Amino acid sequence: MTDHTHAAHPSTTESGGSAADAAFWDARYAEKTQIWSGQPNAVLVQEVSDLDPGTALDLGCGEGADAVWLARRGWRVTAVDISQVALDRAAGHAADAGVADRIEFLRCDLGETFPDGQFDLVCAQFLHSPTDMPREEILRSAAAAVAPGGDLLIAGHAKFPEGAHEDHHDMHLPTPQEVLESLGLPDGEWEVLLSDEHERVHTWNDGTSVTRTDNALRVRRR
Ligand SMILES: C[S@@+](CC[C@H](N)C(=O)[O-])C[C@H]1O[C@@H](n2cnc3c(N)ncnc32)[C@H](O)[C@@H]1O
After folding, report:
1. Bigger pLDDT: 87 vs 208
2. Distance, CA of 35 to CA of 147 (rounded, Å)
3. Which CATH number is 120's domain given?
4. Residue 181 lies in a domain
5. Pocket of ligand 1 (CB under 6 A)
6. Domain total for the chain?
7. Which of 17, 61, 69, 108 could form a disulfide with 8 if both were Cys (CB 3.0 to 4.6 A apart)?
């Protein structure tokens, strides 16, 4: 298990872009009492079930289903999001699941600040935003936060599913290879454990289903 602190570097500003982006996501979450399925992401379950628990950092944790799943399996989780509305909801789910003491929820705009420390697992599940979020830069910080022997797991949409929020539709969705290249990992220091694109049926929380094409990249720091 890796030691890490739970502080974020001080935010450079709480106004302008950061405040507007937070307001955008707060408004999205406030539209409904639940946006996401409440279930952990399938790629997380597939890739992490066999790992020994340690410390985990969940970037863009949303309503907290992944963080709660990890905590239930014994991980100590730092779960970060720009939206206080999402974090409050996630904290409620953690309390309901009896794992509140294993998760620290931290509000920060990852485009401006990044949690200190190193983690055995850093995950970014569908860290997409129609705001000006600097995803590549955030993912490079995510790689830097992986402890030796630890994993970085990134899942993303390969295509936006029918029914996805229309604001997202003009966004470039990188392939796993593009994500890997953008990380700029030093040669020989990382091992690629997963790089794939897959289709699966996704059920929205109103009960309707769509076929999604997602992709995933998992790399391990040697
Ligand atoms: C598409 S949702 C995915 C949520 C969750 N990971 C999941 O798979 O259900 C993207 C999340 O990223 C968060 N987010 C967007 N921009 C962010 C930023 N700049 N810093 C931190 N979180 C951000 C949003 O609030 C939202 O919860």
Report:
1. 87
2. 32
3. 3.40.50.150
4. yes
5. 21, 25, 36, 41, 60-62, 80-83, 86, 109-111, 125-129, 131, 133
6. 1
7. 108
Kindly report, residue by residue over 11-69, the tens digit of the pLDDT.
333 444 689 999 999 999 999 999 998 999 999 999 999 999 999 999 999 999 999 99
Q: How far is the CA of 204 from the centre of ligand 1 (A)?
A: 17
Apex CA 168: angle with CA 61 and CA 56, to 5°? 15
Residue type, 201: V
Structural domain that includes position 73: 16-221
What are 115's strand-pairing partners? 8
Coarse DSSP helix, strand, coil percentages of the chain, rounded to the nearest 5 percent: 30, 30, 40
Quick check: is 9 in a domain?
no
CA dihedral over 207, 131, 157, 186, signed as positive or negative: negative
Which atom of ligand 1 is closest in space to residue 86's alpha carbon?
Answer: 27
Whether 126 and 156 have beta carbons less than 8 Å apart is answered as: yes
